[in-house]
UniProtKB/TrEMBL annotation:
Gene responsible for this protein: rsmI
Broad class of the protein's primary localization: cytoplasm
Reaction(s) catalysed by this chain's protein: cytidine(1402) in 16S rRNA + S-adenosyl-L-methionine = 2'-O-methylcytidine(1402) in 16S rRNA + S-adenosyl-L-homocysteine + H(+)
Family: Belongs to the methyltransferase superfamily. RsmI family.
Entry's Gene Ontology molecular function annotations: rRNA (cytosine-2'-O-)-methyltransferase activity
Domain Tetrapyrrole methylase: 1-200
PANTHER family assigned to the protein according to its UniProt record, in alphabetical order: RIBOSOMAL RNA SMALL SUBUNIT METHYLTRANSFERASE I
NCBIfam families xrefs: 16S rRNA (cytidine(1402)-2'-O)-methyltransferase (TIGR00096)
InterPro entries referenced in this protein's UniProt entry, alphabetically: 4pyrrol_Mease, 4pyrrol_Methylase_sf, 4pyrrole_Mease_sub1, 4pyrrole_Mease_sub2, rRNA_ssu_MeTfrase_I
Protein name: Ribosomal RNA small subunit methyltransferase I
EC number: 2.1.1.198
Lineage: Bacteria, Bacillati, Chloroflexota, Ardenticatenia, Candidatus Promineifilales
Reported function: Catalyzes the 2'-O-methylation of the ribose of cytidine 1402 (C1402) in 16S rRNA.
Source organism of the structure: Candidatus Promineifilum breve
Localization: Cytoplasm
Amino acid sequence: MLYLVATPIGNLGDVTLRALDVLRAVDYVASEDTRKTGLLLKHFDIKKPQIAFHEHNEEQAGGRIVALLQGGQSVAVVSNAGTPGVADPGFTLVRRAIAQELPVTMIPGPSALIMALVLSGLPSHSFTFRGFPPRKSGKRRTFLEIDKESPHTLIFYESPHRLREFLADALAVYGDRPAAVANELTKLFESVRRGSLSELIAQLAETEPRGEYVVVIGGRIQ
């Protein structure tokens, strides 16, 4: 069986009992970063052989995992935090397993995009997750233009190094829409800033962004 196991996005207390049961029971754990996953496993006194499985070796490592599954072994896939397969490795492996008619299931749990969406106060009944935008402004604006006319709430992941530039490009493309910027979710210094894009840009000019961010932007009002 192939298990996709969601892991905490910050607070280890958010791990589910079922996730721990699966991690203890499987033969292997496929990890986006074996060092980070090693710390998680050690915290819960779980000892399992790990397989490095990340965006740079998905093809090779995925083949190894499929071979293990075909041999009757069980494998749990985890990302550094949150749900594997969503802006993290996992999608290609699921597709390969399905093509080989191998059993696949998921152990649900923490997801930064869902938490940020709910806390943003923006409409959550219909949304589009766009993941990480391109790093350079020109390509980023082209990327943002795709959803300019969309009525759905938009969700993005962004690094602290490009957060201000991303918000500036979003303002240029979408206009001064309502938005929210979530940071350090589930951690001690969790924060959710809300306001218009211009207001958020002004707020963030006064502080140095740190950690990973989720940006939620309101859709176009029809």
